[in-house]
Write a structure and sequence with these properties.
The complex is a heterotrimer of chains A (about 550), B (about 240) and C (about 325). Chain A has about 550 residues and is an all-alpha fold. Chain A has 16 helices and no strands. Chain A has a single domain, classed as Cytochrome c oxidase-like, subunit I domain (Cytochrome C Oxidase, Chain A, Up-down Bundle). In chain B, helix 2 (about 30-65) runs parallel beside helix 7 and helix 5 packs antiparallel against helix 6. Chain B has one domain: Cytochrome c oxidase, subunit III, four-helix bundle (Four Helix Bundle (Hemerythrin (Met), subunit A), Up-down Bundle), CATH 1.20.120. Chain B has about 240 residues and is an all-alpha fold. Chain C contains eight helices and twelve strands. Chain C has a five-stranded mixed β-sheet, with helices on one face. Chain C has a five-stranded mixed β-sheet with strand order 4-10-9-6-7. A two-stranded antiparallel ribbon of chain C has the order 11-12. In chain C, helix 7 packs across helix 8. The chains are: A mainly alpha (about 550), B mainly alpha (about 240), C alpha+beta (about 325). Chains in contact: A-B, A-C, B-C. Chains A and C meet through helix 3, helix 6, helix 9, helix 10 and helix 11 of A and helix 2, helix 3, strand 7 and strand 9 of C.
Chain lengths: ~550, ~240, ~325
Amino acid sequence: MSTAVTEIPQESRVHYLNVSYGVKSWLLTVDHKRIALLYLVSITFMFLVGGVAAVLMRIHLIEPAGALVQPETYNKLFSAHGIIMVFFFLVPSIPATLGNFLVPLMIGAKDLAFPKLNLLSWYIYIVGALFTLYAVISGGVDTGWTFYTPYSSTYSHSAVIPVAIGVFITGFSSILTGLNFIVTIHKMRAPGLTWFRLPLFIWSIYATSVIFILGTPVLAITIFLLGVERLFHVGIFDPAVGGDPLLFQHLFWFYSHPAVYIMILPGMGVVSELIAAFSRKRIYGYTMVAYSSFAIAIISFLVWGHHMFVTGQSIYAGLIFSVLSFLVAIPSAIKVFNWTATLYKGSISYEAPMLYALGFIGLFTMGGLTGLFLAALATDVHLSGTYFIVAHFHYIMVGGAVMAYMGGLHYWWPKISGRMYPDMWARVAAVIIFVGFNLTFFPQFMLGYLGMPRRYAVYPPEFQVFNVMSSAGASILGIGYLIPLVYFIWSMRYGPIAPANPWGAKGLEWTVPSPPPTENFEETPVVTEEAYDYAPIPEGQHG
Amino acid sequence: MADLVAHGVAHRDEHGSAGAHSQNLRHHFDNMSQQFEAGNLGMWVFLATEVLFFGGLFASYTVYRALYLPGFEIGSHLLDVRFGAANTAVLIGSSLSMALAIRAAQTGRRNAQVFLLVLTMILGAAFLGIKFSFEWRNDYLEHLIPGVNFLYRPEWGANAPHVQLFFCFYFIMTSLHAIHMIIGIGLLSVLTWMAARGRFSPDYYTPLEVSGLYWHFVDIVWIFLFPLLYLIGGRYGIGGGH
Amino acid sequence: MNAATCLWKSNLLAAFSLPIHPPTASTIGQGVDYLYFFLTGITLFFTVLIFSIIFYFMIKYHRRSDDEVPGFIGTSMMLEATWTLIPMAICAVIFIWASYLYFENSRPPTASMEMFVVGKQWMWHIQHPEGPREINELHVPVGVPVKLTMTSEDVIHDFSIPAFRIKKDVLPGRYSSIWFQATKTGIYHFYCAQYCGTDHARMIGWVYVMTPDDYAGWLSGGVRGESMVESGQRLFTQLGCITCHVADNSGRCPTLNGVFNHPVKLQDGRTVMADDAYLRNAIVNPNSMPLPGYAPVMPSFQGQMNEEQLLQLIAYIKSLGPEERKSAGK
């Protein structure tokens, strides 16, 4: 799909990629688009490191007695996988890459509110990542990404402090990113761009930023206290000296539960954009979808205790956390129904981004519904600490968030790079990922119900069949992820030049050339349309 | 939210010295007042993160205080309330001088700005001086620093581990606060240098404004810390003192 | 579950040689399973529904030409309300059902047989009150409610018996408890289900559910040591408790006769129940809950015995009825 307007050939046009060359021009940039690419490269690298850990784990688990490594090493592998994937890939992924690139473009601004803070946030991320990678190389940490005390504070003989420092530092990267987005969205929208004309991606980034701001500092203080306890053994979490190990869990999950919504909300925003663009329709129930992002962000702070139903907390506390956990599922359900309704009488095309979006809806529905098993007290007792939990969160994080991230990367790749990727390969990869993903993680639901606990380096033989199935799926999934890596890099040199609006989509980002010039807009646009204004809205109707 | 839109639209129509030709206007903003508001909102959002940061710490402290009140009372009584009160007065004074410094920028008085900023720094340094050279030095001499030289005393009996826990929180909370003070003094020294060079005017004093917010916040944290740490259990026979 | 269903299921399983279902061997197991099947049904229903609608729309509304633009469709608030309220109603049903089961499962019947579990890196020590001790094995009689009182020597563990659909975290410094009533004899796995270090995956064992006769035989057979009460009495003397806690209340300390499971009035006016946790706290953290009329002079016994010995000592104290007089060495 190309526009009819004659465009200046890309080679002779100055844009953000060719306006200056050299390492310094990238490492000292304050252009939000270049910073987004710096993040893209960094988190892709971290994704590969975390992915290697996963591959090693799944190879090891082919045999009940363990096929590859000693238990100590296995424990370090799953800890590294969790820490890297959560803190260094999933949390920053969509906000720091797609968010950084798109937020100013989508609201008609020239940059974020604080460009230098933006660059600083990337450097902070890099320092944190280096600390953590150093820790992994120098022996690793074996506490799991959850660092439960007193194991992590007193008993573990691994590199807890370096990893804790790495995660602590990286948290500030999140905080600065969130701060930047909130101020930008409040203060720098183009004239005419009212809140309810914003793309839903912006709504979800805003809600995510609220969680960044309010949740991450609590993680920071939790890690800080853990470090003090580990260094000085003063008894904050040590029962022998009067401390309470469960206090750590309350503090930890107060951040880490909202953190999982940090990981999914931006993905939901991306899916809204994809569904609208590839059905050429405004998202059904725009207002409800916008509000639901906020509802999720707020309620997410009230449910942390559902990670602790079997710790011995009061059954009345359990009741309250359970009912709130059911409540937080409702806004997500509303989104799923609204996305599906958007397809009704739409004009649907099947490019790779749309395949990812549709895959997201199906897999997120499954993952979300399996969350109900865990919000329900009686079943959670049986399923807690088992592979059911592992399957549940991978359905949401990988089947949901990563697929949305891939869909978004494909959708906006022409805008980011000025090139088209090969769509046939992209669709093949999307299908391989979908199949590989389900084969990897569906058997894990079965394992969980059968009672196989998680974080087990060895397991009883009756669990082998499902483990082998899961490992086979993981190999397919791995291949699926490598294919886009190849063709995206290929496309930067050999891909066809992309027009300003290859998909024929609505949105301010599609009104500027691909790639955009450094200042985004020559003149600040004035917005007069509703969001996703594909068909004119009849008189008297509302969006 | 309509007012935000109207506000946004109005930005485009502004004329005058706060318009787009000011040399202080960053290129990605449309006009000075948008830039000022963005800076302000940014600092408020940052302070929200600080509230949650200290909040997590306060929550942990509250849990243990509720569980171990006798030990925490012993610990609290071992702190010197006179130093704590003096520090409170010093900090409140420094917030006053900071606010006056901003006022001086708003009214274009350069010498007053510099004087008041320096005064704020001196008061901040006085706070740190009292804390480090009097309070903490005393604590060191009396073996009250957990992880360094903490010694149980027989008169504490079974409460001894909780007295240690109290001091653990005392040092964590006051050192985190002190780090924020030191950063604040650093900010102030940069601001003083800028003020001396005439960087601030009634049109542009955003760095002063946002740093002022930060400084007041650090002050408010201390106003919470002081009663929580120093005034547990009533010291002078009123309200059940021991 | 009747015989026909059992047969059909086992044939299916045999056909696929895949375990899908853990054994259901406790009284609560079936209730949990029914809820699980209901949840599975809901999940399948909505997944299939959403997938089908999406497939159908994808095909029916496939883009026919490049410049096709669909018409405007307004949002129906009725539809929004419907698909908000129906999920809420389903969630309410699940919540009430699950909470009811959870409440039922959290209260052990009063006539439960008690056993004591101590988890430590990386094994489980189990004590029966009659004396036998086991490592990584738990023998229980069928058809009798059993209450496990558990604690950890070091880090947080979790005692999980999937066949009974129960698990609970086992924490250092406090007691947690679960109960079950086994319904089928047999041998079932138990696992540690909270990551606890290097050999977390090897901290597993077997529950042996036996007929009451077999269980009685197992209890009395084999090497017979002291009962928990006897061990506890020995510790009570060895550690010097007996010098203060004299039975006729003539010492500096309150008598312990009949103290267990009765209310205790504290110095600050509160009244607490003297349960296992209270007794443990009184031994390792004395003077944290002072009693009126007694000086806080009891020394702490933290670190002077391990968790199993603590349980034995508490078993002894629990055995002290109000009318008995115990002296050192029966």
